[in-house]
Amino acid sequence: MEIDEAREVRTTCPYCGVGCGVLAKVAADGQVSVRGDPDHPANFGRLCSKGSALAETTGLDDRLLHPQIHGFGSSWDEALDLVASTFSQTIAEHGPDAVAFYVSGQLLTEDYYLANKLMKGFVGSANIDTNSRLCMASSVAGHRRAFGSDTVPGTYEDLELSDLIVLVGSNLAWCHPVLYQRIAAAREKRPEMKVVLVDPRRTMTSDIADMHLAIAPDGDVALFTGLLAWLGQHNALDRAYITAHTSGFGQALFAASAFNLAGVAAATGLSEDELGRFYSLFARTEKTVTVYSQGVNQSSQGTDKVNAIINCHLATGRIGKPGAGPFSVTGQPNAMGGREVGGMANMLAAHMEIENPEHRERVQRFWNAPAIAGKPGLKAVDMFKAVADGRIKALWIMATNPVDSMPDAGAVEAAIKACPFVVVSDVLAETDTVRHAHVRLPATAWGEKDGTVTNSERRISRQRAFLPVPGEARPDWWIIAEVARRMGFDGAFAHETPAEIFAEHAALSAFENDGERDFDIGAYAGVDREDYDALAPFQWPAPSPGTPLTPTGHQSTRFFANGNFYTPDRKARFIAVRPTVETRITSDFPLILNTGRIRDHWHTMTRTGKSPRLSQHIAEPFVEIHPVDAQRHGIGDADIARVSTPRGEVLVRALVTTRQRQGSLFAPMHWTDQFAARARLDTLTASLTDPVSGQPALKHVAASIEKFTARTFGFAVTRKRPATMAADYWAVARCRGGWRVELAFANDDVDWTAFAGSLFDTADTEVLAYHDREAGQHRIAAFDGEHLTGALFIAPGPVAVSRGWAAEQLGEVHASQRQRFRIVAGRAGAERPDAGATVCSCFNVGVNQITAAVAAGCATVDAIGATLKAGTNCGSCRSEIRAIIAANRIQAAE
Ligand SMILES: Nc1nc2c(c(=O)[nH]1)N[C@H]1C(S)=C(S)[C@@H](COP(=O)(O)OP(=O)(O)OC[C@H]3O[C@@H](n4cnc5c(=O)[nH]c(N)nc54)[C@H](O)[C@@H]3O)O[C@H]1N2
Ligand SMILES: Nc1nc2c(c(=O)[nH]1)N[C@H]1C(S)=C(S)[C@@H](COP(=O)(O)OP(=O)(O)OC[C@H]3O[C@@H](n4cnc5c(=O)[nH]c(N)nc54)[C@H](O)[C@@H]3O)O[C@H]1N2
Ligand code: SF4
Ligand SMILES: [Mo]
């Protein structure tokens, strides 16, 4: 590709489902820069901390750039032939269900379309499932039960138009930051707009909440069935809508009434007063949007939670209207695109149903395919069980890292290791999954590839290449098409560009549709390469001109205000959901482990882990615990804690906080074997799933916690990443100029000079050291001329060296012996106040700096911004700044 340096390329952020538009540019020296696209309707120029730091993630140093077979470089021809022949042979010998694809909501729609087409139409099995099973499956199942189709009725604008937003199991401030900012801005304009947060933890999202309901884990079904009953009792129903457009209301209301208010209070852990206030606010606010995410979906009752929420919106007729509706926000950039192409094991392409013989026949005819999967395939958890017991003998994993992200990850890793043939398409050379692949296929990454993605509000945007393709990397769609051709399916996979694939996908969406199916982008069936290159973001439905959206309806950006659901009788179905109470804890595992995300890391850190600024916000794996539980289990703040479940254990830093609910722990999912000694969180989670959607219950796992008794703690900065770390606990994080390493040891019987030599180069360097064996204090630094190659600090308790200061030393010139000696002198960095943990990653401002500014009189986020610049670029840290101001003011008042 020719790189035009003057040109900004319009593309889309590869992180969350908000789907922000990005303008990317490459300077003459290869430096990439990005900014928010002011014209993109998802973000209007905004970007969060992750989006703003995208330029730091495009480096090639850890990329997979050539195909490999058994770890040795091979040609593309050899690798593709091997994949095609092994899959063909396995199918010939053991049938189509002996092979499987495990794919991802991070594939582009064109990649996803071809993977699904190959498996369902040409292999003839539906054994293709996706990490969306861990993410959106309960929402999909809930939508299909209620609406007859997987339709998200509303748009982002509804958030701004609403008078009440109920956020359920969603940490929007950290996980959909630009939507959070849009809500925060709307609230500033219309202070009468209310926000209710339903989350067991007091997350940063509580910053915009007028009411935080610290619900008991999995109390949501009780909360929303209780709401339905309450709406019935208080004459707050839209009887006309219920009669005209729905069925099953009576049974749903009856089921919902199983608990009285006291029962709901007991099941949710909320007081009757809290419930009454929330219920009456909901009842009287016509323009209500309920936004929900993983606290709803990732549950053994996920689908019931979704339907309990949708029931309340149907009962009040609040759906598909400006400012009103249920709104499932998607996690991955192309979770929606994957659903559109039918990338899940129980769906067919273009929102058609695998159980419907007419749909199957239609898709097969459209594809001119030799076969069509006759039944749903295995859902992710069952798929890996089938790999484990040998039913699946050839597995192709694309754009996902199941060894880290699947529940019961230890068992998943063992299954992958034992599988006779594993292919992984990835952009990185080394991940916890890639390392087990027999064949590694190098995919082009964000910035190098072309295609489309669909965001949470059904908006389809282009991702465009602005970087040259490195090495022999190839786009995922190309890899899939090449394998398909070599399996003998040339004609159906003859696409030469993503534009051709998109046009086919659009044509299928309109094929014999006539308004019967929600997903219709027939207007784009004829796009050629030029149209595709120029494609502006658009929202579906976008049927061909003249096609009605529904047999009776009209085209609109919202669905269902006037009914017209995709059920046989065109009515929405109320689902009779019964409230329940669940306890999973036991005397051995007395705490509930809740898992999720942090602001500046993305999943298994394969991208954000490359960015120094994103790695400073939280540089270590941790577990949040309430002070009362901490005391009970003997855990002090900053101790290393061992969290265990029947499946495994991890070692992570303890963070004692009242933001956590008593009885629960929270730990982030991000750290892998690439970044920490023992923090793969999904080695703890169970393969328990929702019975309808098959989505695992990743937020509710019985666990125990104990202090890991460390006799020695360490901290190091190193120019190069250490190859090995012989410590019981270690965690590495990228920093400007190198790496920072946290360490802890069960014993103190270590030769620290030798250990330092294992972390950084001490051989041909000037080594300065300070040892106080009595006090257990050791400091060792090595210099390559005037530059620090690494420094190690050892102490009997958590090391008190300023992290920011130490990391900065990697980039400084240490000309004199005196300067070099400062590194190992008594109070390293003490002459300069420690900035503390990074809060603002754009301007590298730490918590201590903000605290000092508050003490000096800054009382608002804007005042902090004016003094320190913190919070003035992407704005993702503004809620944290507000929390720091509040905490310091409370202290001052006490
Ligand atoms: N920074 C960042 N952003 C991301 C991602 C990332 O990795 N990093 N990933 C993206 C993806 S793929 C996804 S799916 C989304 C996820 O976005 P979110 O769903 O917002 O994120 P999570 O942290 O997984 O979980 C949300 C909240 O659910 C709460 N919760 C746990 N149990 C319950 C319960 O029983 N009831 C209720 N009501 N709440 C509960 C948790 O305490 C947590 O705060 O984020 C997307 N955005
Ligand atoms: N305990 C717990 N576990 C969870 C969750 C939780 O909340 N708690 N959340 C679940 C959810 S919602 C999700 S979405 C999953 C996410 O889990 P994963 O999908 O496993 O996480 P990622 O780190 O995003 O993995 C993406 C992989 O694709 C590679 N990649 C990036 N771009 C491309 C590309 O263009 N082509 C190819 N071929 N590869 C590419 C990356 O290098 C990386 O290895 O985790 C799930 N697991
Ligand atoms: S909110 Fe942040 S992570 Fe999500 S798409 Fe926008 S810039 Fe990317
Ligand atoms: Mo997700």
Overall structural class, as computed from helix and strand content, comes to alpha/beta
**Low-pLDDT segments:** 549-555
Largest sheet: 7 strands, mixed
Write out the strand line-up for the largest beta sheet, numbering strands in chain order. Answer: 5-4-16-15-14-6-7
Radius of gyration: 27 Å
Number of E-state strands: 34
- How many helices does DSSP assign? 30
- Report strand %: 15-25%
Shape field: globular
Distance between the termini: 63 Å
Ligand types? ligand MGD, iron/sulfur cluster, molybdenum atom
Mean pLDDT: 94
Helix content: 25-40%
Q: Which labels suit this protein?
A:
binds iron/sulfur cluster; six-stranded mixed beta barrel; seven-stranded mixed β-sheet; binds ligand MGD; globular; alpha/beta; 19% strand; binds molybdenum atom; 894 residues; 30 helices
Q: Mind explaining what this structure looks like?
A:
With 894 residues, the protein is α/β, with parallel strands linked by helices. The protein has 30 helices and 34 strands. The strands form 8 sheets. Strands 5-4-16-15-14-6-7 form a 7-stranded mixed β-sheet, with helices on both faces. It has a 6-stranded mixed beta barrel with strand order 21-25-22-24-23-26. A hairpin with a 4-residue loop joins strand 33 and strand 34 (845-846). Helix 8 packs across helix 10 (249-256). The protein starts with 8 loop residues before the first strand and ends with a helix. Bound molecules: ligand MGD (2 copies), iron/sulfur cluster (SF4) and molybdenum atom (MO). One ligand MGD binds at residues 16, 50, 135, 168-171, 174-175, 198-201, 203, 215, 217-218, 220, 293-295, 331-332, 594, 596-597, 599, 601-603, 699.
